[in-house]
Design brief:
Radius of gyration: 27 Å
Oligomer: single chain
Number of helices: 18
Number of strands: 31
Strand content: 25-35%
Distance between the termini: 67 Å
Strand order of the largest sheet: 4-6-2-14-11-12-13
Length: about 725
């Protein structure tokens, strides 16, 4: 099925099941511990041995020699896999560095060996007996120091490296009101609950890999490329994932090393990357330095806006596209954006929840707050005055498919009681607490990907959906079941959903907040094909047949779906391919964040007191799971604002904050009840579901609202994240 014209009325519009706050259908399995994650597939892969990764002790240089004899002689050890005995390996296009180093070391904690033993403890202890002689080299570990050597970045998540329209330099030079500031964000880690983990088993030359992975089909290809085997010889299974946030979009060292070890010892091997290894061995969100310049007239109407961002990565890597939202969010006839990339010898930088916008809005939305102050204008009103209903770089020829940004600002402000705010900083007290409120815009591009599914009807009238779509805690099982129930007009308990297996049709996968919208569109296509097949088998004219309450109906005749399916059942595949509507229309999701903080006047401790947001993201397929996604994202925004930071040891080139004791993330005590409101919206140019993504929108701008609230509370304007106590305490007003 091709989606290349706006969606008209269709069966989804009935919203008998879609659009309702249905409980997670996988919830009971998860709370009872019956949903097996990758490392728990013990029945599928019995008698598995355990692998422990040995990571490089240097950040750059080479290995002179590896002596594995003591490790191999240790109790329970079955094998030690190194670059010398692993056989030829390639680096796939999705990985910047090799997942098993040979002689060249590209980053700290890069896997250099895997010790395989009968028990986890034996493998871990023997790993200490692998003796490695290194030849360290001088590395580049400081983004600020390497900034002057940065070059124009290659194309990133946000499209081209640089864009421009009009004459920014002239317009900015002549603007009545100007802002020119620099903002920084640190390296950040995904820190998902489930570590990267895999079990590998071979049957002849056929590899089966149970692994925590967000994008099944792409990872099958990457695994095949890495091992040098045909893709059809790889089966990847990932039915349940304990969080990913982008870190599990691709295969990592656990998957490759498990496969190598299992082939070597002739039995299944399970490998999990230990928590302290994840920060350096896998991927992270790169640090940024961002310069923002805005020129406006005295009424606050922006005429010139520029956003430049510097980030770093390994040679061959890509940028953090922090300026991408600035291309679409606010008006301005004269504009430019640019991304610059410095080569660093730190671990690989790559996608983390809302790559680009999450950190770009941390900077842009402070800048907008500062501009509002220069203009003596309410921050909400400033944003309303600079709304634009078309792509401001391309002009009116490319309108937004739907844009309820102003509605989000107004509804959000009303629900938060923004009008009660004292705009003058440092004026509101509650005992020893300085109280402040702040707001910020939310923006995230709406992306879609081709997605396929298989729909099966059996003699009992049960509809089964099979697709390699994944559920990373986002509720994929549930929204897919809701879609099938809606299209086939059956109760939800008559739908079965099977996910995360490369034997199933290729879906969009989970990433870029395209997962739910794209995958349910693929299910819609498969179910519409199933409707036609069932109607034809029942002897109806497919153009006249309707589906209602578990029946195929045409005229005065009704046939149960199970009866139409017959003893053999009916199986069809369907796929949704998306046309060029994303080129004709700018597509994005919008929102407005509001936050109230308390800052301890004595210590500088920051506490979130209220957090609220209003969001427009097309049809909300399941308000309960969508709200869950948004409050999780808002919580991550608080973490980015106040505590999250991979601190770089610039002497030796590694992230020192490597576990949850040192890399701080918000906990329940840090977050009060959060108010989330979804503005009614249908986007008929996005998909037949008329939905958009929502999982990443909630993090975009949330941290900036916290930062702006801190300024309102204290009068201290911080531009360097995270906004920790040490950056506040010396600047606090006298008590």
């Amino acid at each position: 099925m091709k989606f290349d014209t706006p969606a008209g009325d269709n069966v989804i519009d009935r919203q008998h099941v879609v659009g309702h706050p249905v409980d997670r259908i996988d919830g009971p399995l998860k709370v009872c511990g019956l949903a097996p994650y990758a490392y728990e597939q013990n029945e599928a892969a019995p008698n598995a041995a355990y692998g422990w990764i040995v990571g490089s002790a240097i950040a750059t240089g080479r290995i002179r020699s590896i002596d594995t004899r003591d490790a191999e002689a240790a109790a329970g050890v079955l094998a030690v896999v190194t670059g010398a005995n692993a056989g030829p390996l390639k680096t796939s296009g999705s990985n910047t560095a090799a997942l098993l180093a040979s002689s060249k070391i590209e980053h700290y904690d890069q896997a250099v060996a895997l010790v395989v033993a009968e028990t986890l403890e034996q493998a871990r202890d023997a790993a200490r007996l692998v003796h490695i002689d290194y030849a360290p080299a001088r590395g580049r570990y400081d983004l600020a120091a390497e900034r002057e050597h940065a070059r124009a970045a290659p194309r990133g998540f946000g499209g081209p490296s640089a864009t421009s329209a009009g004459d920014f330099d002239t317009a900015f030079a002549t603007a009545a009101v100007k802002l020119d500031e620099v903002y920084t964000t640190p390296d950040q880690s995904h820190m998902m609950m489930e570590p990267h983990a895999s079990i590998a088993a071979w049957e002849g030359d056929q590899l089966t890999l149970w692994t925590a992975n967000q994008m099944i089909a792409g990872s099958v290809k990457d695994m095949a490329t890495t091992l040098g085997i045909p893709a059809e010889k790889v089966r990847l299974i990932s039915p349940y994932i304990g969080g990913g946030f982008g870190a599990k979009l691709w295969i990592r060292a656990d998957a490759v090393l498990a496969a190598l070890a299992a082939r070597k010892i002739g039995r299944p091997v399970k490998v999990a990357i230990a928590r302290p290894q994840i920060a350096n061995n896998t991927v992270h969100r790169p640090a940024t330095i961002q310069r923002i310049r805005i020129g406006a007239d005295k009424n606050g109407v922006i005429d010139a806006i520029a956003h430049e961002s510097w980030s770093g990565d390994l040679p061959g890597g890509g940028p953090e596209s922090a300026a991408q939202q600035t291309r679409l969010l606010y008006r301005g006839e004269n504009r430019m954006t640019a991304h610059y990339l410095a080569e660093l010898d730190l671990p690989e930088g790559n996608a983390m929840r809302a790559p680009g916008e999450a950190v770009g809005l941390l900077a842009l939305e402070i800048a907008m707050d500062e501009l509002a102050e220069k203009l003596s204008l309410d921050p909400v009103e400033l944003r309303i005055r600079n709304d634009v209903q078309y792509d401001p770089e391309k002009g009116p020829s490319r309108p937004f498919s739907s844009r309820k940004f102003v509605e989000c600002l107004r509804v959000g402000a009303e629900r938060f009681h923004w009008s009660r705010r004292n705009p003058k900083p440092g004026q509101v007290r509650d005992g020893r607490w300085l109280i402040g409120t702040g707001m910020a815009s939310a923006f995230r591009n709406n992306l879609v990907q081709a997605s396929a599914a298989r729909a099966i009807a059996d003699a009992d009238g049960v509809i089964t959906i099979e697709t390699d779509m994944t559920d990373i805690g986002t509720g994929s099982y549930t929204v897919i079941a809701q879609t099938a129930a809606e299209v086939m007009s059956v109760p939800l308990d008559k739908v079965r959903v099977r996910l995360g297996d490369s034997l199933y049709p290729v879906s969009a996968g989970s990433g870029g907040q395209w997962g739910a919208n794209s995958s349910t569109s693929g299910v819609y296509a498969a179910c519409m094909a199933l409707r036609s097949a069932l109607a034809q088998k029942a002897g109806f004219n497919t153009a006249d047949a309707e589906f209602a309450d578990g029946y195929v109906v045409s005229g005065n005749r009704r046939v149960r779906i199970g009866e139409a399916a017959g003893a053999d059942g009916v199986t069809v595949d369907g796929k949704m391919d998306f046309g060029d509507l994303t080129k004709k229309y700018a597509q994005a999701t919008f929102g407005a964040h509001f936050c109230e903080v308390g800052v301890d006047a004595m210590t500088g401790e920051v506490r979130i007191r209220r957090q609220s947001g209003a969001f427009a993201a097309g049809r909300i397929l399941n308000p309960k799971s969508a709200r869950s996604q948004v409050i999780g994202a808002m919580t991550m925004g608080v973490g980015a604002a106040l505590m999250e930071e991979l601190i770089v040891d610039k002497r030796f080139g590694y992230f020192a904050t490597r576990d949850l004791a040192e890399y701080h993330v918000p906990v329940h005590a840090d977050i009060p009840d959060q108010d989330v409101f979804f503005v009614d919206e249908l986007d008929d140019k996005s998909s037949p579901m008329k939905a958009k993504g929502v999982g990443e929108l909630g993090i975009c701008g949330a941290g900036a609202a916290v930062a702006n609230a801190i300024y309102n509370a204290t009068g201290i304007r911080l531009r360097d994240y995270p906004m920790t106590v040490d950056k506040l305490i010396d600047k606090l007003p006298r008590v």
